[in-house]
Structure formats: structure tokens, C-alpha cells
Amino acid sequence: MKPQEKLKEIIKKLKKEYPEPKTALNFKTPFELLAAAILSAQTTDAHVNKVTEKLFKKYKSIKAYADAIPYAFKKDISSINFYNNKAKNIQASAKKIIERFNSSVPKTMEQLITLPGVARKTANIILFNAYNINEGIAVDTHVRRLANRLGLAENEDPVKIENDLMEITPKKDWGNLSILLILHGRKVCQAKKPKHKECALYDICPSRDI
Ligand code: SF4
Fold it and tell me: Does 140 participate in catalysis according to the annotation?
């Protein structure tokens, strides 16, 4: 099977398993998603959602994040790992968005990656989930693992994996592919004990015997 055909088959099968793919991070505004995505680095989405449930009620505008007293803001997210840096990045991003981007979270990759704490993966998450823009494919630990196990990429470097996936995936599917692989990685193709026998991709997966 050609890589493009295989990819098409993977998307078709995963869409059956996860008919309404969307990010597990809760948010109502693009800035809330930006904050949640920064908080989610090396933290579970479930824990981030628990913290942001209170956070989003307390801080209701980008200005509120920018103006918060740093000590108090850090305390609000202190149950999350690396909260010190994450707090600094969220507040610095809020300030920059107000000063440089007219108080709106940017809608381009080029501008988004100028924000503190926002690299390509976070920018892809924001563009697709907040603005429905397919600019790239967010590669996290699940996407990296599944891309390799499924034989879609042969790299460990997220940028190279993203390029490999973009080459064989129709642009309209970029955002969904990332979410589908993440959902499948969490539920079935887990890092330590992948549930091969329960997997919808068993028939076409070169790693089903690992
Ligand atoms: S068959 Fe196994 S290794 Fe392949 S995608 Fe499914 S769970 Fe992962």
C-alpha cells in the first residue's frame, strides 16, 4: 500500500472510532486555549482542565492575565509542573498580544511563534482548534509514537515527523490527523502496553507484534 493510501485508510478507520475528534483541552476563547496549551506541556490534559476550570473563571480577559500580580498568578497554577515558567510565559504572551497584536491572539504561524512559550506544536493546536486553520500537524509524544509504529515516519525529531506526515496527508486532514492519533495513542496504542488486539488499525500496522 502506498503511504498516501495507507494514511487515508488510517484516517478512515480512526474517524469511525472517534467520530468527533477535538482537543481534550477545555477552552472558550483563543487565549484560553493558548494558556491551556502552554500549561499542558508534560502535564495531562485532565489535570490542566481541572486547573483551568477555576483559572478561566478568575481571569476573564487577556488584560486580566497581563495585569495579574505574578505571585498570585503563579499560585493559581502551582499544582502544574514547571508552573513558574509557564506562568511567566502566559503573562508575557498576554502582554505581547495586547501591545503587538491589538489584543487578539494571532492567526498566523509566523506571529504565533513569536509569543513566549509558543512553539510550532502549540501554534498548530491554536490555529486548528481555535480558528479551524490547517497550517501544520501538531506533533506531541502520542503523534510521534504512533507515526513511527504505523510506519508513517522514521524520525524522532518532531519537525521532521511533521514534514513526513504533511507530505502524505491532504491539507484538509492535518488538524484532525493529529487529534485522531492523540486519541488513539491515549486509548489503545499506549506507550507501554499497546492493545494490539483491540486496535482498529491492527490489519495495517507493521508494529502489531511488538
Ligand atoms: S496495532 Fe498495536 S502498535 Fe499498531 S497502532 Fe494498533 S495498538 Fe498501536
Answer: yes
Q: How far is the CA of 81 from the centre of ligand 1 (A)?
A: 30
- Does 55 reside within a domain? yes
Whether residue 209 is contained in a domain is answered as no
| Digit-coded pLDDT (tens) for 19-75 | 999 999 999 999 999 999 999 999 999 999 999 999 999 999 999 999 999 999 999
- Residue ending a domain, among 131, 153, 186, is 131
Give the torsion sign (CA, 64, 69, 75, 77).
Answer: positive
Q: Is 121 a catalytic residue?
A: yes
**Residue 204 CA to ligand 1 centre (angstroms):** 9
Task: Please identify, among 131, 157, 185, the residue that sits at the C-terminal boundary of a domain.
Answer: 131
Report which residue type is found at 9: E
Q: Name the catalytic one among 6, 45, 86, 121.
A: 121
Ligand 1 centroid–CA 206 distance in Å is: 8
Task: Report the C-alpha gap between 78 and 70 in whole angstroms.
Answer: 12
**Cα–Cα distance, 127 to 199 (Å, whole number):** 30
Identity of the amino acid at 29: T
Count of domains for the chain = 2
| Atom number, ligand 1, closest to the C-alpha of residue 210 | 3
